[in-house]
Amino acid sequence: MRTWNRPWKRIFTAFTVLAALGTAACQAQAPSGPGGGGGGPSPTPTASPSDPGTLTFDEGPAPFTDPTTPEERASTRYSSGNWLLSDGFFMQTAAAPSQTLMIQRYTGNALGKPNGYAVSRYRAEAAVQVYEETPTDPADMVGAPTGIWGFIPYYLDAQHFVLMMATGREAMVWVVDGLRPGDTWDATTSRKWHVYLPQPLAVGDTVTWGARINSETSEFEVFFNGDRKTTFRHPMISATASPSVALVSNGNKVRYDTVTLEPLSQD
User: Fold this and answer.
1) Which of 23, 36, 41, 137 is the most buried (most CB within 10 A)?
2) CATH superfamily of 37-42+58-263
3) Predicted model pTM
């Protein structure tokens, strides 16, 4: 991992998955939904080739856009945020007044299909950092004042996705199947992996999330900071669906370092 003041490139290429270190026990009580998500134009195909190639965050535009609808944004559960390129990062700079998600869906061709869509088997990895605290009421932001270190490696729409998130002293993976920010998220049915961290996350810390998805078998493999943790199955992960990948903020000041995508099939 590089130092944060050195400019560099984001690379969409194959990456090596490290050895498994085992899974952690889940707690019974669920936190509130983390909140966040979008506004803006519909995704449009990019001119990039099917080869993953190299994406840099030093030059724009970044191949991400807000996929939420005007109605979703009017509900205040979702917000466009203010995403920009700065110092080689793709970062969210706006603060949200209430529980909300700010989603940026990938629109390039590195997942094997045009307009950000993925083939049936693929890998996705992202390194994410909270770079600044966001003064806000804890009722309006899970993990306040830092919020979440999040990544969405399986995205269908604003109510159907798999959210990998860390906050405070916890890291977890949620299957969001019909849920919105501000809803009660039931850990017994929606949380698929959870671990307590040895020390609390703080501004400047980086979390690396990774996933390997097989839509043909409904499998989702979880990687945390390079280590394989668990595999689960869920019917939302289906061969009939059209998944993509998304970045996410719950109204917090978050920025993305590397984002690595690799198709594993040729459908």
Assistant:
1) 36
2) Exo-inulinase; domain 1 (2.60.120.560)
3) 0.82
